[in-house]
Amino acid sequence: MMGLLGILFSLLTPGFSGAQPPKKRGGRPPALVQVSPVLEKMVVTRVMLVGTAEPWSETVVASEEAGLVRKMLVDEGDKVRKNQTLCIQDASQLRLKIEAARAVVAEAAANQTRAEREWGRLKRLYSIKSVSKKAYEDAQFAAEAAVKRVARLQVDLYTLLDQVKKKVIYAPVSGTVVERHTLVGQWLGKGDPVVTVTVMNPIRVMVPVPERYVSRINKGDSSQVIFDALPGRTFKGVIDAIIPRADRAGRTFPVRIEISNSKGTIKAGMLGRVTLLIGNPHKAILIPKDALVLSGAGKSVYVINDQTAHLVQVKPGPAHGSLIEVEGKLKAGQKVVIRGNERLRPGQRVKVVSGIRGDAP
């Protein structure tokens, strides 16, 4: 009987049975994360703005004289050189007038010669009292009148010659004809447009710059421009002018970027994306954009210290490629989480790895 009681006692008492108590379940395993160092570098703030390519200049070439178009030597799309002939007006009537005017001038010049010779003869006779003073003065007046008449007729002739010269219309600049306003056989009035010539080298890109940036850029600053129509190519530009009159609706100031376009690759009207350098180089704290997470207080990052994630609030600034400027309690060399931070909690233990299974590359 005593033996049976002993067996029952040993079964009911854990200390005597040799059985072990159940183990407690272990804590949450460390989160797998990737990290990147906080950097401190000298940077320049860059902003990208959208602008439009425009000709450097656009000239409407007009007719200086009225007349009928006899020859039109250029068409739209043609490249022209400075002083190249564009259009010739009919000048046949003017040439007839010129021939007549030359004959009149020649006759007047002959009369002038005779009058001056007669005046010289009477001048000698008057000096020896052989002719009256009135005869001498009449000869002098006739000679002077002949000189003035020749001069007046020559002016008339030169006017006709100038009118004929203006019947040929030349290109005032080297460029490209973008519009033709007249055809052979049409009548051109004085001042009527003949063609429009644009200068495409250099070319300019007009960019509306927000007022918060315009005070931080200067004439002569460099820029980079890419065009949607020219993929894979980057063009260097220079700020040529900052127009000090804002658009009232958008509060932007027109800024003109000059770009070399010797091959004519850039066309007027192309959409350009202009990167401007804003302000002077400055020291900044930089982190990868992937380090930013949205928390209740705004943007934050997780800093790893002693294998523990610590949430630090930051204020994002301008981006520099894959990096972004931030303000906050960060120091160069600290490690911030760039992968796996979406599931982290402040104070959570972490394990830094080179890759996280299941994450998108």
Automatic annotation (TrEMBL):
Keyword Nucleotide-binding applies: no
Superkingdom of the source species: Bacteria
GO molecular function: efflux transmembrane transporter activity
Domain (CusB-like beta-barrel): residue spans on this chain: 206-276
InterPro entries reported for this sequence: Beta-barrel_RND_2, MdtA-like_BSH, RND_pump_MFP, YknX-like_C
Database matches in SUPFAM superfamilies: HlyD-like secretion proteins
Keywords tagged on the record: Coiled coil, Signal
Keyword Thylakoid in annotation: no
GO cellular component, as recorded: efflux pump complex
Signal peptide segment: 1-19
Domain YknX-like C-terminal permuted SH3-like: 285-352
Segments forming a coiled coil: 91-118
Residue ranges of every copy of the Multidrug resistance protein MdtA-like barrel-sandwich hybrid domain listed in the record: 66-199
Family label: Belongs to the membrane fusion protein (MFP) (TC 8.A.1) family.
Protein name (record): Efflux RND transporter periplasmic adaptor subunit
Organism listed in the record: Candidatus Desulfacyla euxinica
Upper lineage: Bacteria, Deltaproteobacteria, Candidatus Desulfacyla
